[in-house]
What we know:
Elements: E1 2-6, H1 11-22, E2 26-33, H2 37-41, H3 47-62, E3 66-70, H4 72-88, H5 95-111, E4 118-120, E5 126-130, E6 133-137, H6 147-150, H7 155-158, E7 161-162, H8 170-179, H9 201-209, E8 214-218, E9 224-228, E10 250-255, E11 260-264, E12 276-284, E13 295-298, E14 306-314, E15 317-322, E16 334-339, E17 342-352
Parallel strand pairs: 1-2, 1-4, 2-3, 4-7, 8-11
Antiparallel strand pairs: 5-6, 6-17, 8-9, 10-11, 12-15, 12-17, 13-14, 13-16, 14-15, 16-17
Amino acid sequence: MNIAVLVSGGVDSSVALRLLKDQGHSVTAFYLKIWLEDELSFLGTCPWQEDLQYVEAVCKQANVPLEMISLQKEYWDKVVSYTISQVKAGFTPNPDILCNQQVKFGSFYEKIDSRFDAIATGHYAQLFSHNNKQELHSAPDTIKDQTYFLSYLQQKQLQRVLFPIGHLQKFQVRELAQQYNLPNKDRKDSQGICFLGKLKFNEFLKYHLGESEGPLIEIETGKQWGTHNGFWYYTVGQRQGIGLAGGPWYVAHKDPEKNSVYISRSYYSPEKHRSSFFIGNCNWISGTPPQATGLTVKLRHGQHMHNCTLDYTDNNHALVILKERDQGIAPGQFAVFYEGTNCLGAGIIKNQSFA
């Protein structure tokens, strides 16, 4: 096949590139120019330059053509502006999920021409064909599994995708990098939000939203215990970074209109169930909602899952009932559903139910 491979300068996408070439495919590497000039201007150093240098070295070693595509406008319009607006409204969005749906497997598809049969990335995920549809399955490496971030993709996108390293453990990918003697074989894994590279999220928020002093209020008593620099720096369920003695303190609620952050020392009290919530804007990968029972759900990226059931309002809205409570149910985050290893899709958490 003629395959477009998205490369980032990291080990995972570089190994994916080499595996596909070894399999006899005709591969072209693509580096997405998505860094934002405004953000880079106050970083002091440009985080993309090192990435691009590694990409160029990997492609030169493999004798693979490299093309750069600018998607800065698309990133701003579809991901960055959405993230800012959601945070300002008091929600906790996940830019990486939108990055995959809207840009890597969205705008990029529209930029490349029809000569490519498939698009490959270095994601840890697996695809299996069933009844002429693509199923998205978890990677065997449960720590590295990235299906959470891919859960908003649709059939038309998955039909053209390849995940060459999705069946491997991370240590196996590292071993292959050594065998290929890749220029980036010893490079550490990157962290951070997709469109910001090495920029920390709070720095991004400070740049766009600034600081505004507001009260830290104990939710049970109404007593003010201190101040904060802006509700947008806090997430429901958060413990770290509150900065008050006499805790532990947890963020229990945010009021965007009053710039108030409500905190609690009895966040884990038994009477505070936190075992159900509503979702909307659902994306079901198969095209139809899954059965209501026998499911598990992730409320954030990681290994932890809850057993759950769904009580549908319609195909795009449901009440999610967890078997065990979760202390980090934050509106705006994505709830991602599974049946075994099969990632069924996701919905956006709208609000918590206390019924």
